[in-house]
TrEMBL record:
PROSITE patterns noted in UniProt: COPPER_BLUE
Keywords noted in UniProt: Copper, Metal-binding
InterPro entries tied to this protein: BlueCu_1_BS, Cupredoxin
Keyword 4Fe-4S tagged: no
UniProt superkingdom: Bacteria
Keyword Ion transport: no
MF terms in GO: metal ion binding
Region (Disordered): 1-25
Protein name: Blue (type 1) copper domain-containing protein
Taxonomic path: Bacteria, Bacillati, Bacillota, Clostridia, Eubacteriales
Length: 159
């Protein structure tokens, strides 16, 4: 990897470890992010499974529960910090426990566009509207990544 790419990756990882948009309330003790606006930009980072916890890093938290209002327009900027394998983020209309976590990879996104994939050391963007209240699960659709901790939950609340 080039020196400037490594520096950019390090700065992005540092920013994501502590920063969060001003329109999101962070509840660290409950590992929860609460979106208060009708649109939000979320930065998500995924570490190498060998180097990190296997978690998604969002708003300075690992795999937080994200609460957003119905109709919220979500823009995801997904950073794959793994130099050897792809990672992704998909939101599905299902809740754990899952009898066989591998079944998740075949499930369609809960909302059009609620799915993103990035190759090693790449960044990708996705956009979707959370159009239905309910409880959803986000996870990495790469084989076996969910089993090592790359998943969390989203609650879409009535407006």
């Amino acid at each position: 990897m080039k020196d400037d790419e490594q520096q950019h990756q390090a700065l992005t990882q540092e920013a994501l470890s502590t920063d969060h948009p001003s329109d999101i309330s962070v509840h660290r003790e409950e590992s929860r992010l609460v979106v208060q606006m009708k649109s939000v930009d979320l930065e998500i980072g995924a570490h190498s499974l060998e180097e990190g916890t296997g978690a998604f890093h969002i708003g300075g938290l690992d795999d937080p529960r994200i609460i957003i209002p119905e109709g919220c327009e979500v823009t995801l900027t997904f950073h794959n910090w793994d130099s050897t394998q792809p990672h992704g983020w998909r939101l599905i209309d299902a809740r754990p426990p899952f009898a066989y976590p591998g079944e998740l990879t075949n499930m369609a996104p809960a909302f059009p566009g609620a799915d993103v994939k990035a190759g090693p050391n790449e960044t990708a963007t996705a956009r979707f509207t959370a159009s239905r209240p309910g409880f959803y699960t986000y996870f990495c659709p790469e084989p076996e990544h969910t089993q090592v901790g790359q998943y969390g939950s989203v609650e879409v609340t009535h407006s």
